[in-house]
Amino acid sequence: MSTPTRPPLDGLKKRLEESRAARARMPRDGFLRETYVLPRSDARAKAKEWFDRWPKQAYWTSIESWFERPGDVIEFTIRRLPTSD
């Protein structure tokens, strides 16, 4: 009985490089960002959850960008400061 061969890691390496390059392009302004791709009602609920948990007045929470995708899906990036200090 032989040991199975390892799968090629080319795809994984490419994704890691792309992710690192994308992070390098992101501004280092102190904000924490999350990007979501959700159906419209779920996107609205997720944004409300963020604003309830991290109020805009204390954390400068805001929707940084949003796009309407086919099928009533919303892709949005929301940002906030890490602390309210």
Proportion of beta-strand residues: 25-35%
Which residue ranges are poorly predicted, with pLDDT under 50 across at least 5 consecutive positions? Answer: none
What Rg is obtained from the alpha carbons, in whole angstroms? 18 Å
What distance separates the N and C termini? 61 Å
Helix content: 40-55%
Number of strands: 3
What is the number of helices? 3
What spatial order of strands do you see in the largest sheet? 1-3-2
Question: How would you sum up this structure, described in words?
Answer:
The protein has about 80 residues and is α+β, with helices and mostly antiparallel strands. It has 3 helices and 3 strands, in the order αβααββ. The model has no long low-confidence stretch (mean pLDDT about 90).
Q: In short, what is this structure?
A:
With 85 residues, the chain is of the alpha+beta class.
Give the arrangement of secondary structure elements:
Layout: H1 10-25, E1 32-39, H2 40-53, H3 56-59, E2 62-69, E3 73-80
Antiparallel strand pairs: 1-3, 2-3
Q: Descriptors for this entry?
A:
85 residues, alpha+beta, 3 helices, 3 strands, 40% helix
